[in-house]
Design goal:
Blueprint: E1 3-5, E2 12-14, E3 17-19, H1 29-41, E4 46-48, H2 57-65, E5 74-79, H3 94-108, E6 113-118, H4 127-140, E7 143-149, H5 153-166, E8 171-175, H6 189-196, E9 199-200, H7 235-238, H8 241-257, H9 261-270, E10 279-280, H10 285-292, H11 301-311, H12 319-324
Helix pairs in contact: 1-2, 2-3, 4-5, 8-9, 8-11
């Protein structure tokens, strides 16, 4: 396992982050704890959860699993979505953030959260209120660093500007969806994060299971995340000819290297410029072991470029116009 600096900070995280969204749901507590311990034993030091995963059960399992090794790892969680049937139990208001952090600390059985992330932008709460509250949490020691997730480029830049103007703590990370079959962040968000030294922690790195190679053209899934009719991992969003051409290339590279398609997709992402630590999940210990096989080796330049080229976005306006007149020395 290799390590990278987490954005504009002084801490380092493993090149893979273990996501815990399935813990307490499709993955039972025993297997969930086993995954965490295996991950730490194999050099991983970065765990990601959220207060709404399985109604807080994920945080409880994580807290139970890490007690004897708390200081050895970087623990990330999130706040923003609804936690109760009450109009003020949602959003990024000072009230909801302060209620949320106390509840997360209790479930995680810890005194502090290393990385506290805003799960998505709140169009009601002024960003100044959100950032002032987060700055107070950092000053109090309950939170060490802050980050965002699913923000647009202008939302990230506005947040950084407000923080700089008011001398508040800055976001050091952004957690977007990003994979070979979901590269919309290439337009604005990824270049911004590189420019501003904001760590990128992609979720959905194997396209919700699409890049495992389990599904073929005309074969709608009957199990797994792709069966959902809603959300970013629905079959309707994955079932396109371009995505299947990308999958064909992943399968070809995997066969040439004697690796699994998931390992190839993750390895491409690990070595993508601007990417700090992809967040992978697993329902079973077998899936966990397979995903961990994505580290310890590197795609050749030819294999990496083949995957990068076939999955690249089209050069639409204004990007092709700007590219045409780009000045370089």
């Amino acid at each position: 396992m290799e390590y990278r600096v987490l954005g504009k900070s002084g801490i380092v995280v493993s090149e893979l982050c273990l996501g815990t969204m399935t813990f307490g749901n499709t993955t039972n507590e025993e297997d969930s704890m086993a995954m965490i311990h295996r991950f730490l034993d194999q050099g991983g030091n970065f765990l990601d959860t959220a207060n709404v995963y399985v109604s807080g059960r994920s945080e409880e399992i994580v807290g139970k699993a890490i007690q004897s090794r708390r200081s050895d790892l970087i623990l990330a969680t999130k706040v923003r979505f609804s936690t109760a049937d009450n109009v003020n139990h949602v959003g990024l208001s000072r009230k909801h953030i302060l209620d949320g952090v106390e509840a997360s600390l209790k479930r995680l059985n810890t005194d502090y959260i290393d990385l506290y992330q805003m799960h998505v932008w709140d169009h009601i709460t002024p960003i100044e209120e959100t950032l002032r509250t987060l700055d107070d949490l950092v000053s109090s020691g309950k939170v060490r660093y802050i980050g965002c997730s699913n923000f647009l480029a202008y939302q990230i830049m506005k947040s950084l500007g407000v923080s700089d103007h008011n001398r508040y703590t800055r976001f050091i990370s952004n957690q977007p969806q990003y994979s070979l079959v979901s590269r919309q962040m290439d337009r604005e968000v990824l270049p911004l994060c590189i420019e501003e030294n904001v760590a990128v922690l992609p979720w959905g790195p194997i396209g919700g299971g699409f890049l495992t190679g389990k599904y073929g053209r005309g074969e709608a899934p009957t199990e797994g995340r792709l069966t959902s009719k809603a959300g970013e991992s629905s079959w309707d969003l994955r079932n396109s000819e371009k995505n299947f051409r990308i999958l064909d290339e992943v399968l070809a590279v995997a066969a040439e290297l004697d690796k699994t398609p998931a390992q190839v997709a993750l390895n491409w992402l690990i070595h993508k410029q601007g990417i700090t630590s992809p967040i992978f999940g697993a329902r079973t210990l077998e899936q966990f072991d397979e995903n961990m096989g994505a580290v310890g080796w590197k795609l050749s330049n030819d294999h990496w470029n083949r995957l990068d080229t076939i999955s690249a976005l089209e050069d639409d306006y204004p990007y092709r116009f700007i590219k045409k007149f780009r000045r370089e020395f």
